[in-house]
Amino acid sequence: MPPKKKSIVPSQATQEVSDEEMDEDDNMGSQSSQALLSDNDRRTLAGHVVNYMLVADCKKVPVKRSEINKGVLKEHSKQFNNVMAEVTRILSKVYGYRVVDLEKGQYILVNNMSPTLRDHDVFPATRSRNDAATMGLVTAILAGIFMSGELMQEGPMREYMKKLRIDIDSKDPHAIFGNVNKLIMQDLVKQCYLSISFDKSTDPPSKEFRWGPRAHVEISKKHMLELVCKIYGDDMRPEQWASQWKVVQREAAESAGTS
Q: What is the span of the domain harbouring residue 95?
């Protein structure tokens, strides 16, 4: 009696398709089905994707590749790279935005104009007073993290917020920011301004706050350090913050190497 054949179940790793493989499939699909998508159709689809991304940018939420395929491209998802090339061109030429692929197929829009350092933040112009206030808080949080060695533990973060007269644990909504705990722990993480991990060496594990991928793309650490010096006054210079200045120099060198 012949031995039974073992059923082979693909592992999760073999079932998952990497972004690189998806790109290869898209390139092959774009080449094989180019005739199926006219220039006019491509521009129309690109316009829909542009609108989709502009709406998402108002909420400061990254757009996922899968969302674009499912919600906009649909049966033309194989044309993703082809359409996104036109999307990138439109957003740059018409709206002045740069499309940035953060990680894992998540896209955000960044203003092509260099951010102007103002008295209270390091972000490009915001859309309303509430937006400006929120961005001011985000700037304060990111500045605190940067000046703490690019990582801030949960305890120091709570104390830092109290110095700003903000109680993260308060059940009463803040007059300007509403539910501050949700804003910091959820919204800013979802918007990729903050990255939160857990220090498992403590009991119980405590949160660790770092800059999120959007913050790294949108904000110059040099501008952030200049802002801190401006707050301190007394002719404080960026070079006087030794460790932070090293980070600024490293960022400048990396930027020069990729330009």
A: 38-111
